Amino acid sequence: MAVKIENVEQLMSKMKADDVKFIRFELGDMYGVSRSKIIPISHFMEKATRGLKFNPGYLGWDYRKDGSLPIPKYTFIAGSRPDAVMFPDLDTYITIPWLKNTGRILIEPTLDSEPLTAHPRIVARRQLDSLRELGYSLLSAYEHEFFVVDKDTHEPYTKGNISRSTLRNYGDPEFTHQILTDLPEVGVDIEVFESEYEAGQVEIVHKPSFGIKAADTSHTCRISVKEIALEHGYIASFMTQPWPGTEASGLHFNHSLWDVQGQNSKMMDKHSSNGLSKLARNWIAGILTHAPAISVLMAPTSNCLKRYEPYSCAPTAATWGFDNRTTALRVTQNTNGNMYIENRLSSGAANPYLVLAATVAAGIDGIKHEMEPPENVKGNAYEFENIPAKTAMLPTDMKTALEHLSNDNVIREALGEDFYQCYTGFKLSEILMEQEAKEKGNTNWEREFLFERM
Fold this sequence. Notes:
Elements: H1 5-17, E1 22-28, E2 34-40, H2 44-50, E3 52-54, E4 61-62, E5 67-68, H3 72-75, E6 84-88, E7 94-95, E8 102-111, E9 114-115, H4 120-133, E10 136-150, H5 166-169, H6 173-185, E11 190-195, E12 201-206, E13 209-210, H7 213-231, E14 234-237, E15 251-259, H8 278-289, H9 291-298, H10 302-305, E16 320-322, E17 329-333, E18 339-343, H11 352-368, H12 398-406, H13 409-415, H14 417-440, H15 445-450
Parallel strand pairs: 1-8, 16-17
Antiparallel strand pairs: 1-2, 3-6, 4-5, 6-8, 7-8, 8-9, 10-12, 10-13, 10-14, 10-15, 11-12, 15-18, 17-18
Helix pairs in contact: 1-2, 4-11, 6-7, 8-11, 9-11, 9-12, 11-13, 12-14
């Protein structure tokens, strides 16, 4: 990943103007958790052009044993464990307003001068490249739902169960104000901030972007919310369902297909019976065909998979419909009249890069094979009589979800075997964690493992 010296020099001039003295070299791991190293600005030129050493164990780390999973290429369990070399994407530079003299830049790993293809951002970029080769680009954005609790007591920072309550929107006015003020400063153009149904539950929706920038924005949104929450004495958690029996958090993925230049939407056809273009129908069909396999990427933990239950505002089957919130894919329009798809499969704890990658990989297969979707659901998709015959149900446990991914050669090939091996290694480790917790009678293991991490 070559970084030109002249481009680094230009960026350093901007950093100097921004009074940046430290730069955070940052990435999202397989869970989407932010990891970073802080570099004094005096060393930025060297690290940006020659690379920054970084242990690639985050692509294959066994949290049960605090050690490596048996994936030698990435964790080097049997060898000398060499570092990966990270290079920055200079376009991702931002300053962080709540940290003194500090900037941030996103990085990607290489090993022996080649990209580490299991890295989630690289996986996502490659899917976008494949889409571009077909002549299309992706405009997308995420709806982030999360919980905010007192960092010591873990009590929700707002009480009651009432969505969009004005009083709950200002449960802590200073926290709300800083979120709305500082997130735009780091490139998260907030469209909506609102309270969700459960106590302490919040939703943030940001403006869409083309290409990888949308997932980068989602990554930035999550770590920014968590950092700002800590400043106010809170923990912000994107764990999907911290407490049994409560409404879970989602990460709805709103997206649409455009031409490569990003000038013309390709979603609509005024001459078709339902207003959808053939391309959009093919795209929808591809996602639905592969929905069982990509569910483990959309709902990446056993806790997330529990969200797929009836009357939960989450889907239970590979369905679609117009403005139907009981389906997996909700087709709707924005206020400008442009049609888009809300992918409701993804849960609050999902990795935004992998949500994008899985959606695009499945959609591309639909385009290539000119798939047509089943009949759209016009009623309640939780009622079996309303969904088409032979509709695939979504997996609700990790073992079944992994089996679906393992058996889907299209998705495995698109995402890459290196990624598949690393990702399934994590999931198999989690299955063992769950088994061990059950044997010990530990019913809180999911929250202990995920709440602060996610």
